[in-house]
Amino acid sequence: AEPGERWAITATHNADAARTLTLTLPAGAPTAGWADALGGGGTAAVANGQLTLQLPALGGVVLLASSPAAQ
Known about the structure:
Elements: E1 8-13, E2 19-24, E3 34-36, E4 43-47, E5 50-55, E6 59-65
Antiparallel strand pairs: 1-6, 2-5, 3-6, 4-5
């Protein structure tokens, strides 16, 4: 993303059980402040440059960063 632009990550899940997914964030991605824009029950946490998502069964998340891309 360009400096000052917002980041978003989307993930969908079509299984009958919830799942945990861990992704490596690209350089410049925010390392905190990710929030589920849909309120669908998904959660996210960042540690050591990796984003861990808790995806609900038969659902998904749209995560928006509360801070802009790194300058």
